[in-house]
């Protein structure tokens, strides 16, 4: 793998994942990964443009940002690209009225959305709300529609909390796909449109971005979500063969490598 000095040539902006890069979620608000608060502060003092890009769908952006601020991070709501606001925009544009299978913590993001007489289903990381009854209700809504629409906030298989690995939305999304014979529309990582919206927010082209994220099974299958190039994967680290700097580690880990150049 090329050193950071080479990978960062021409880079104008950085996309930072949140869970597993800045902090590990869990009881009591989770814990900041050692060195990540300082790494974010150093990035913000540089001339690089910084954007936070997350699939978090158990918390609203307001709650997530407040939690990160309490852990010491310099972050604002306007700096975060998250799937729930993006999904709401799609729902409004297409006059969709969702049946929501989501966590109560993110429900406030949908307060302005008409949910009467649903003509689609939105599924997210619902946690304990992934009961048989709730899954079956979503299944019934989809099966009653002539043209069923299933929108999934991400499609991760699992993620890490302080208590261990947790099932993400992906397995439940796949269950509804299989049962209904449909394909979900993914809003969030690894959707290229999701990353394009993050790049547009900071005015940076794909070939000018460095992305720092965790080694998670969220359906990438070896393909870069920014440029569709192939990843060279190690067990916990990786990069894209075409993008200048797509790395798989914590913010603190990436920061240490940069400082060592």
Which terms would index this structure?
8 helices; 30% helix; inorganic diphosphate phosphatase activity; globular; HAD_sf; alpha/beta; EC 3.6.1.1; five-stranded parallel beta sheet; 20% strand; metal ion binding; 15 strands; four-stranded parallel beta sheet; 261 residues
Q: Brief description of this entry?
A:
The chain is of the alpha/beta class and 261 residues long. The protein contains 8 helices and 15 strands.
Structural overview:
This protein has about 260 residues and is an alpha/beta fold. Helices cover about 30% and strands about 20% of the residues. It has 8 helices and 15 strands. The chain has helices spanning about 5, 35-45, 60-70, 85-95, 130-145, 170-180, 190-200, 250-260, and strands at about 15, 25, 30, 50-55, 80, 100, 120-125, 150-155, 160, 165, 185, 210-215, 230-235, 240, 245-250. Strands 5-4-1-12-15 form a 5-stranded parallel sheet. The protein has a 4-stranded parallel sheet with strand order 6-7-8-11. The radius of gyration is 18 Å and the shape is globular.
Count of strand segments: 15
Structural shape: globular
Uncertain segments of ≥5 residues (pLDDT<50)? 217-223, 228-238, 244-248
| Helix percent band | 25-40%
Class by SSE composition: alpha/beta
Average per-residue pLDDT, rounded, comes to 84
Distance N terminus to C terminus? 14 Å
Topology (SSEs and partners):
Layout: H1 4-7, E1 13-16, E2 23-24, E3 31-32, H2 36-45, E4 49-53, H3 61-70, E5 80-81, H4 83-93, E6 98-101, E7 120-123, H5 132-143, E8 150-153, E9 158-161, E10 164-167, H6 170-180, E11 185-187, H7 192-202, E12 209-213, E13 231-233, E14 238-240, E15 245-248, H8 251-260
Parallel strand pairs: 1-4, 1-12, 4-5, 6-7, 7-8, 8-11, 12-15
Antiparallel strand pairs: 2-3, 9-10, 13-14
Helix pairs in contact: 2-8, 5-6
């Amino acid at each position: 793998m090329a050193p950071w000095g080479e990978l960062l040539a021409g880079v104008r902006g950085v996309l930072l994942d949140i869970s597993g890069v800045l902090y590990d979620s869990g009881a009591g608000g989770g814990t900041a990964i050692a060195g990540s608060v300082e790494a974010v502060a150093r990035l913000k003092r540089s001339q690089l443009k910084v954007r936070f890009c997350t699939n978090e769908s158990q918390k609203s952006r307001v709650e997530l940002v407040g939690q990160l601020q309490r852990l010491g991070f310099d972050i604002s709501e306007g700096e975060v690209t998250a799937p729930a606001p993006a999904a709401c925009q799609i729902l409004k544009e297409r006059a969709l009225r969702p049946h929501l299978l989501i966590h109560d913590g993110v429900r406030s993001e949908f307060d302005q959305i008409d949910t009467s007489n649903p003509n689609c289903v939105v599924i997210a990381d619902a946690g304990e709300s992934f009961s048989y009854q709730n899954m079956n209700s979503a299944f019934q809504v989809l099966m009653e529609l002539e043209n069923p629409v299933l929108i999934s906030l991400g499609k991760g298989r699992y993620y890490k909390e302080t208590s261990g690995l947790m099932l993400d939305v992906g397995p439940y999304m796949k269950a509804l796909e299989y049962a209904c014979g449909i394909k979900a529309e993914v809003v969030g990582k690894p959707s290229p449109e999701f990353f394009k919206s993050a790049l547009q927010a900071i005015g940076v082209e794909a070939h000018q971005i460095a992305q720092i994220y965790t080694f998670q099974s969220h359906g990438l299958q070896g393909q870069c979500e920014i440029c569709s190039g192939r990843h060279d994967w190690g067990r916990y680290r990786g990069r894209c063969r075409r993008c200048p700097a797509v790395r798989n580690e914590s913010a603190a880990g990436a920061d240490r490598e940069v400082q060592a150049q």
